[in-house]
Write a structure and sequence with these properties.
Blueprint: H1 7-10, E1 16-17, E2 23-24, E3 28-29, H2 31-40, H3 44-59, E4 64-68, E5 71-75, E6 84-85
Antiparallel strand pairs: 1-2, 3-4, 4-5, 5-6
Helix pairs in contact: 2-3
């Protein structure tokens, strides 16, 4: 029987924490995947992640967001590339 390798492959459910303590969230573009990532962060990291997300949103109008490689990414509107990626807190 083939078992999924990760919760991301298995579908919705509680996020799996990777060895570094980061949540494993399916990749995606937009605010929803980033908010899911922040919600799955353990303990004090969740408050820090939420505050960083608020600060970035306030400082960069129209910020683009995505989750890639189990990390949230932030980019400027109408620009290619990303200006910030958080891998660990």
């Amino acid at each position: 029987m083939n078992k999924p390798r990760s919760r991301a492959a298995a579908g919705p459910g509680p996020a799996v924490l990777l060895s570094g303590g980061n949540p494993q969230i399916p990749k995606g573009e937009g605010d929803a995947p980033v908010q899911a990532y922040i919600a799955a962060m353990p303990g004090w990291k969740q408050n820090v992640g939420r505050r960083l997300d608020e600060l970035i949103g306030a400082a960069v109008p129209g910020v683009r967001k995505a989750v890639k490689w189990n990390s949230p990414f932030y980019g400027a509107k109408a620009q290619e590339g990303w200006f910030l990626a958080r891998h660990r807190l």
